[in-house]
Amino acid sequence: MTMLQNSKLSALMVSTSYPADLKDWRGLFIRHLGDALARRGDLAVRLWAPPGQTHPNIEPVASARESAWLSKLMQQGGIAHLLRNGGISRFASPMWLLNFLRQAYCRNQDVDLYHINWLQNVLPLPNNGKPLLVTVLGTDMQLLKLPMMKSLLRHKFSQHPTAICPNAEWMVTPLQEAFGSVAEIQFVPFGIDSAWFELERQFQSATHPLWVVVTRLTKAKVGPLFEWCEPLFRDQARELNLFGPMQEQITVPDWVHYHGPASPEQLGRDWFNRAQGLITLSKHAEGRPQVMLEAMAAGLPILASRLPAHENIVFNGKTGWICDTAQDFASNLLELESSEQNILYGQAARRWAHEAIGTWDDCAARYNTIYRKISK
């Protein structure tokens, strides 16, 4: 065992998404992860990310110019959004990002290891042999379809002791096939803010059933939500509340209560405590949606579309239902409007979230174990 295994490790965490504060929904999971890592006494954390509030133990290392550019990137919806919809920005923004990252990596070569979120941020990494942990999310799997991308990443991974850590099990097999010979592939689930586990539900006191949807509004993320819900919600016998930023021009029906973006604090205080459950009918290539984990920790049953990301956390007849058709969706929704059944499903969802996922401190401990392993 080397000296690094027993001493305090210094890590550079890189992310192109970060919230301005705890009320900002954008990149909030990175804030929670960074804070949990910083709470540990055996890590020194530097953070290259958009400007925002950080834990006192975190050292922000983005330059003023980089911070200004990253802040603008966040206002534009992030790098993934620009790549999909950004016009000329879809070509210019990645080049600016790679250039800024190259400079940041050069300034921070004295760290013990890198913790990089999103695969594209690995590309400018210097060939210095430092240990590398890469967090992989659902959008990364689309990146791998680009010409030469796998080859470029394989070359980078071969220069470092590398652990690739997807946040959902379904990504392990394709990542193993692409990079298993040059990196260790290990599923590492994100954590959940402990406040969700403490939420007390009061859905029985609502005057009529209230359901929530939390998603970025794109055609793929919305999926068949409006078509499947209209027969059940149009007469206002029950209420559908939709939260999230409008990232494509989507027409929201007048029977849907659309609230725009909401902070986790607002969702927990005003909505999750009164809701029958969470609905997500996305057709988007999801990783492991954090809002679903938070809803389950809060004791909400889930109604979800059939995606690998959903099938790994929604267990039919236990924590919710995977719905293949509008008919399935309608019958499962009606079942969960029975208070007795709803409570049973919700308790199972919370129990699974606690046992299988845990808190952000649990997540930080999982990452720290890998840091130590790749630093041998």
Outline, from the CA principal axes?
A: globular
The CATH class name of the largest domain reads: Alpha Beta
Portion of residues within helices: 40-55%
> H/E order of the elements?
HEHEEHHHEEHHEHEHEHHEEHEHEHEHHH
- CATH architecture assignment of the largest domain: 3-Layer(aba) Sandwich
Q: Specify the structural class.
A: alpha/beta
Rg from alpha-carbon coordinates: 21 Å
Considering the protein shown, what is the CATH homologous superfamily of the largest domain?
Answer: Glycogen Phosphorylase B
Strand-residue proportion:
5-15%
This entry's quaternary arrangement is: single chain
**What average pLDDT do the residues reach?**
92
Largest sheet: 7 strands, parallel
Domain module count? 2
Strand order across the largest sheet: 3-2-1-4-5-6-7
Span between N and C termini? 7 Å
* Number of alpha- plus pi-helical segments: 17
The low-pLDDT segments are none
CATH topology of the largest domain: Rossmann fold
Instruction: List how many beta strands DSSP finds.
Output: 13
